[in-house]
């Protein structure tokens, strides 16, 4: 197992984005799948890029996922990504699958590649067929050229109920080469930790084997996208795609190049965790980002189960929204998490800096100060099991009245 802790500094690039690594062009436009907002996005690598992906665990996988899996399995190289919002093309039968393949072919023709060099992603309403006439018209209007608004248009075109665009970018020097990793994501509702409850797009100019790329993405996903939740729902379309076109000029790294892979994986983790936290903060109707850290676990799996259980508890989320320091809900969620190594007489709980439980019983604290802390935009809950050295962190949001309002009228 490769250690993901890196000793070399990773630099966050202010205003960096998915097009920051060398050789990537992106864009977006409105083609009419949505009433007014951008709804068609594209990504193009000037040279074929090695590709890795992780997918939803929902058994009702949408047609675009099957097409994307088919493309990546062909030879592991991808040159283009085409994405629509406003329609998930999920639960649409053979017609939906045929349309996804047509969508792939149209964009491949546009960029002059073979269909197998293109992946297809969709997001939006489930159970409706794509308007192929509008989609075809939109793809015909695509211009593969950089302009001042191309990145912003891409980031806008992938959104559904999101309230803001999500991006991240870092650089790291590895063996004398500057490696850039950039990303964009969408996600606001139907968010549960079960692999990539979202659409995510990550690019890098590193030269890395497809096997190592897939390993890094899968491993990093477990500590980022798999550790967020908004509402406990896992969508039919969730996918994260990672492309590496090799234009940074390094000699190809394989899994045997442990030092280089370790640094690359750490940088990738920075991007994925940033995107994951942005998704959690943008939960439908959310007013606060909730971070739950569990430490002192005997096994990491128990720390993960408890963190996810607490951050996903509706009662914890509503207490955070209402600024109620009801620590009993935190204890309760830890207790039903399925973790097997909890000693109830050892547990310590903090709400921010305020210790509220020690050795499994109440610890004196100021209700007024705890309530004041819970009024902040970022809330941290810490649970110490005092039994080992394993830790895990999960991210989510509060649960407000607006979540019901948004989802009660999602299709209208």
Task: Tell me about this structure.
Catalyzes two activities which are involved in the cyclic version of arginine biosynthesis: the synthesis of N-acetylglutamate from glutamate and acetyl-CoA as the acetyl donor, and of ornithine by transacetylation between N(2)-acetylornithine and glutamate. Pfam families: ArgJ. It comes from Sutcliffiella cohnii. Its EC number is 2.3.1.35, 2.3.1.1. GO terms for molecular function: L-glutamate N-acetyltransferase activity; L-glutamate N-acetyltransferase activity, acting on acetyl-L-ornithine as donor. The longest helix is centred in the middle third of the chain and has 24 residues, at 258-281. Strands 1, 2, 3, 4, 5, 6, 7, 8 and 9 form a 9-stranded mixed beta sheet that branches. The chain has a 6-stranded mixed beta sheet with strand order 13-12-11-14-10-15. The chain has 412 residues and is of the alpha+beta class. 32% of the residues lie in helices and 26% in strands. The protein has 2 domains: 11-281, L-amino peptidase D-ALA esterase/amidase, CATH 3.60.70; 289-408, Ubiquitin-like (UB roll). It is globular and about 70 Å long. The chain has 11 helices and 15 strands. It starts with 10 loop residues before the first strand and ends with a helix.
